[in-house]
Amino acid sequence: MPKDTLNKAQPAKTIAFMQLLQLHPMAWLIGILLIVYSGTFVWHVHKPLPCGLDTGYPQRAANDVDFLVDSTWLDADGQQHQRSEIFDTLLALIDNAEQLIVLEMFLINDFAGRTDDGYRALSGQVFERLLARRQARPDMQIVLITDPFNRLYGGVESDRLDALKDAGINVIETDLTVLRDSNPLWSAAWRMCCQWFGNSPGGWLPNPVGDNPVSLRTWLTLPNFKANHRKALVVDQAGQLRAWVSSGNAHDASSRHSNVALTFSGAAAADLLASMRATAMLSGQVPNYWPNQWTPPREPTTSRTTIQVLTEAAIRDAALKRIERAASGDRLDVAMFYLTHRELIEALIQAHQRGVGLRILLDPNEDAFGRKKNGIPNRQVASELHAAGVPLRWCNTSGEQCHFKHMLHRGSDDQPVWLMLGSANFTRRNLDNYNLETQVILQTDPEHPAAQRALAFFDQQWKNTGERLHSLPYEAYADESALHYWRYRLMEASGLSTF
Description:
Layout: H1 3-21, H2 25-46, E1 60-74, E2 80-83, H3 86-95, E3 100-105, H4 122-136, E4 141-146, H5 159-166, E5 170-173, H6 184-192, H7 216-221, E6 231-237, E7 240-246, E8 259-266, H8 267-282, E9 306-311, H9 313-325, E10 331-336, H10 342-353, E11 357-362, E12 367-368, E13 371-372, H11 378-387, E14 392-395, E15 405-410, E16 417-422, H12 428-431, E17 438-444, H13 449-463, E18 471-473, H14 482-494
Parallel strand pairs: 3-4, 4-5, 10-11, 11-14
Antiparallel strand pairs: 1-2, 1-8, 1-9, 3-6, 6-7, 7-8, 9-17, 10-15, 12-13, 14-18, 15-16, 16-17
């Protein structure tokens, strides 16, 4: 470039820079906020996970395995009936614990449900048993790890949680801020402004789940849509650990929901305890759960009955691997409260196309604690699966929810039954390292009592055997609206949803 042209260009650049500096201060402020917002958005979606999360523990030999069901159904006359095993077992495990109780539970409260409406006082029963065990054995180590939603993120008091603390029980309310943001469009703004104001009980806005008014800060926290969603228990009995993993919450208004659970003893219970320790540590505590006494063996197992503990995205990876492994002539049964994860949906369709015998049982997303829902997302996913020819039925709910998170694979007669269950719905939020989740995999011979019960459970739900109307055909809740379908896809991809 000629020298005189360079000399003319330089003043022009200087003038442009000076004009930029003279922009209105508000423009500078907006620009800085956008930069900070963008950086906060990206960091809290992709930041490293706290230590101990997203873990697939080894397969462990398991003893005393039992498959449990809480099921609600209608008879031919339209009368509702309920079978309850899961929380009766949990209460018995607490009652018989000797030195250790560690309970990790998402919902443990009486929000949105009263016993005079036919609900069971599940949360109160669990609190009473924990307090009774503390009184009977003052030196016992008792830990409750739960989600801050049980205090509405500081927006309401919880006399029950305070009573546990006063009795010397270690109550850990999970620090959710260290987790990744599943709804970053909102959470990035919330982290920049609202989180710094904390929260306190009382306010002037309606309570989303109760009667006492709450603050604006409570409502601003709710759309972060993140949780410690786990439902698990570890106790010690007769010198060994015994574990309980379920899809069910100790929540009064959830007491009519249909759920499944597994109980087991052995080294996998120590792995479950290790996953709970990781949750306590991310919340700023370093508990000592007798690591030397309960450390599982390092050697691989040759047992025909095994349990494997999985958390967070390790659940997704194991589910995908199992679906992709299913061959023509195999059977794959899925019972799910929310089924929205795109990779899993596509894998299920591909499995159907290669001859796997699929049966998909979904909640119709009709009810949520006395409020009617619009069927999103399951009805939209169902329309996609139905169009691909996948056999699908709806749970026949009547105010309650079909709250299963259950997948079972059955191959040839000489192959073990593979069963996965626990807290995780098959959604982006539950499986892509946003929520805290716990799932377990049971592999065992088809003749094992737990396998027999799991196989019979799904058949009864699907076929309505014994004059129990558990399920309905696809047409009962079909919704093939393209608008609703793409609304679900947007909600799933962006995180602007509760699923």
